[in-house]
Design goal:
This protein is α+β, with helices and mostly antiparallel strands and 618 residues long. The protein folds into four domains: 4-220, Histidine kinase-like ATPase, C-terminal domain (Heat Shock Protein 90); 223-352, Ribosomal Protein S5, domain 2 (2-Layer Sandwich); 390-476, Rossmann fold (3-Layer(aba) Sandwich), CATH 3.40.50.11260; 491-617, Heat shock protein 90, C-terminal domain (Four Helix Bundle (Hemerythrin (Met), subunit A), Up-down Bundle), CATH 1.20.120. It is built from 21 helices and 22 strands. The strands form four sheets. The protein has a nine-stranded mixed beta sheet with strand order 1-6-5-4-7-3-2-8-9, covered by helices on one side. A five-stranded mixed beta sheet has the order 10-11-14-12-13, with helices on both faces. It has a five-stranded mixed beta sheet with strand order 15-17-16-19-18. Bound molecules: adenosine-5'-diphosphate and magnesium ion (MG). Adenosine-5'-diphosphate (ADP) is lined by residues 33, 37-38, 40-41, 79, 81-84, 92-93, 97, 123-126, 171.
Length: 618
């Protein structure tokens, strides 16, 4: 058969270009990627043999062979795994396998270390071969097929495919090394790299020098070895290889569960959030093995969504080897393992939370995702809540619900919070004045997710969790730290003033009422309880949702404020009518600005304000 020339998909060329030209600071990882593919291929064939035992006659003991050839300057990585047919070659080595390269290219940061980490995660692992090779030849034959193929590319726009039926089952990747990369022909270098990146690969990796063959990895699944025999370094390397990451694990859990279900778990919490943590299709990097045979890494039923940053391996003997997708979804075994690991993870985190500085690192990377556990339908919400940490008004440290409760004032019944987009502007929110005056701490919630969990997790250890906006008579029960200097305006004047404000502001607010929560500001806006908060309204607008603004707001006024006293007085003088109205409009617009809201008529606001400034200067 003649050679066929096929163009790479446009995105592949782009990725190849990046891989070849800008990501070479850590190019040794090409070996880890190719060995990982070889090992995956063996896992796939082992699994296929369960369903098609007739294939067994043509396969042998699984192994991966590295052959450096100094004469021809080639490094060959050979496996006797599943192999590829022509379609596989075109689909897997001609396009970008996983989430698509558009996203990959978008996520590139320019920081080489980070960009390198992306390569593996995006399934461009194979293309990393072009970091060290100017030509890559893939000789492969798929188990069960008669036809074999040779794929060749120099990493530019195209590759060629040619049939060769004499090939054995499995795949050989032949790298024609660039002259500056001949170090990868050195046995010492190869031994070292395999030990560092691929030691845990569960089949033998053999270095072949002439007639000499030497197994250079431990070839036993790391999680099956006793804890005491595994070094921190080995755990780290394993973590980096299962999650294609470059950071250290922040937490490592390795245990064997025995009971109704037996399983071994080797789980990690990363230090840094993976780039795709917030993509809706993000899966945890969790691999399921049955008796050391790889089954699947697409396991939404094994880890709740809020723990999707976890990576690692679960190995159990309590499932049949030929377990199907449907069965994985239905079997109670998965549910039980999930329950078990969630419990363990939360327990482990609880221990780590005792060291606040250390726990803060975890919280900064994953808190925003972890909080989703407060509204995910799980039994462990309380335990999740115990592990949540928050910013608050009392000091700069993060606190837990329990710490908040321990610091509650006499007469305080509830846990109070305020939501918004950033801590600094929240701290200046006039709504907090009455709390500050009573020494009452308030949780400051600035993640979009906060707007959602506060609607489902509404009570902690018997204390209601409520918005400062909805604090009313409950706040009055708490003593002020200092008695206010000003008396409130009298009830008669209050009524007149409220009516006037309503007339002036018309539909801009739903109601006007006096409040005890303000000490420094004359006005503030709230949303009645049960309504969408101002912050949520803004978030939804920012995401393109059409919602009517300014709908059900209530304007609160501070009856002790100097400005309110003044306005109440001025009401008695008819000549001052226009000035009072202008003052109300300016104060209202100012309140909107403080809330971060757009003004209906900024020009009119600015005109009125200028005239007030002028009269003040006169
Ligand atoms: P990933 O391994 O994340 O899927 P890669 O770029 O590393 O992405 O590999 C792309 C695909 O090419 C693999 O999913 C697999 O289907 C195929 N492949 C690569 N190497 C081999 C191999 N040695 N044997 C069989 N298939 C392979
Ligand atoms: Mg791969």
């Amino acid at each position: 058969m003649t050679e066929e020339k096929i163009e790479f998909k446009a995105e592949v060329s782009k990725v190849l270009d990046i891989v070849i030209h800008s990501l070479y600071s850590n190019k040794e990882i090409f070996l880890r990627e190719l060995i990982s593919n070889a090992s995956d291929a063996s896992d796939k064939l082992r699994y296929a043999l369960l369903l098609h035992p007739e294939l067994a006659s043509k396969t042998s003991e699984f192994k991966i062979i590295l052959t450096p050839d100094k004469q021809n300057k080639t490094l060959t990585i050979t496996d006797n795994g599943i192999g590829m047919n022509k379609e596989d070659l075109i689909n897997h080595l001609g396009t970008i396998a996983r989430s698509g390269s558009a996203e990959f290219i978008k996520s590139l940061t320019g920081d080489k270390q980070k960009d390198m980490a992306l390569i593996g995660q995006f399934g461009v692992g194979f293309y990393s071969a072009f970091m060290v090779a100017d030509k890559v030849t893939v000789k492969t034959k798929k188990a069960g097929d008669e036809k074999g193929y040779i794929w060749v590319s120099s990493g530019a726009e195209s590759f060629t495919i040619e049939e060769d039926d004499s090939l054995p089952i499995g795949t050989s990747i032949i790298l024609s090394l660039k002259s500056e990369d001949e170090e990868f022909l050195e046995p010492i270098r190869l031994r070292h790299l395999v030990r560092q990146y691929s030691d845990h690969i569960s089949i033998p990796i053999i270095l072949k020098e002439g007639a000499k063959e030497e197994t250079i990895n431990s070839a036993s699944a790391l999680w099956t070895r006793p804890k005491s025999e595994i070094t921190t370094e080995q755990y780290k390397d394993f973590y980096q290889s299962v999650s294609h990451a470059f950071d250290e694990p922040w937490m490592t859990m390795h245990y064997k569960a025995e009971g109704t279900i037996d399983y071994t778990a080797l789980l990690f919490v990363p230090t840094k959030p993976p780039f795709n943590l917030f993509q809706p299709d993000r899966k945890s990097n969790l691999q399921l093995y049955v008796n050391r045979v790889f089954i699947s890494d697409d396991l939404p039923e094994l880890m709740p969504f809020f723990l999707r940053f976890m990576t690692g391996v679960i190995d159990t003997n309590d499932l049949p080897l030929n377990v199907s997708r449907e069965m994985l979804q239905k079997t109670p075994v998965m549910q039980k393992i999930k329950k078990g690991i969630v419990k363990r993870i939360l327990n482990e985190l609880k221990k780590r939370a005792e060291d606040k500085e250390d726990y803060k690192k975890f919280w900064e990377s994953f808190g925003i995702v972890f909080k989703e556990g407060l509204y995910e339908p799980i039994d462990e919400r309380k335990e999740v809540a115990d592990l949540c940490r928050f910013n608050h008004t009392a000091d700069e440290n993060l606190i837990s619900f329990d710490e908040y409760i321990a610091g509650m004032k006499e007469g305080q019944e509830n846990i109070y919070y305020l939501t918004g987009t950033n801590i600094e502007s929240l701290k200046n929110n006039p709504q907090l004045e009455g709390f500050a005056a009573r020494g009452v701490n308030v949780l400051l919630l600035t993640d979009p997710i906060d707007e959602f969990w506060i609607q489902t997790y509404t009570e902690h250890n018997g204390k209601k969790i409520i918005s400062v906006m909805h604090a009313g008579s409950d706040l009055e029960k708490i003593k002020l730290e200092n008695e206010p200097n000003e008396q409130p305006i009298d009830k008669e004047k209050e009524k007149l003033l409220i009516n006037r404000i309503k007339e002036t502001l018309k539909e801009s607010v739903k109601d006007v009422q006096v409040t005890d929560r303000l000490t420094k500001s004359p006005f503030a806006l709230i949303t009645p309880s049960g309504m969408m908060s101002l912050n949520l309204e803004r978030l939804m607008k920012a995401h393109g949702q059409q919602i009517a603004m300014n709908s059900d707001r209530i304007l609160e006024i501070n009856p002790r404020h100097e400005v309110i006293h003044k306005l109440a007085e001025m009401l008695e003088n008819k000549e001052m009518n226009d000035k009072v109205n202008d003052a109300i409009l300016v104060l209202f617009d100012q309140t909107l600005i403080a809330e971060g809201e757009p003004l209906k008529d900024p020009a009119a606001f600015s005109k009125r304000l200028t005239s007030f400034v002028l009269s003040g200067l006169a």
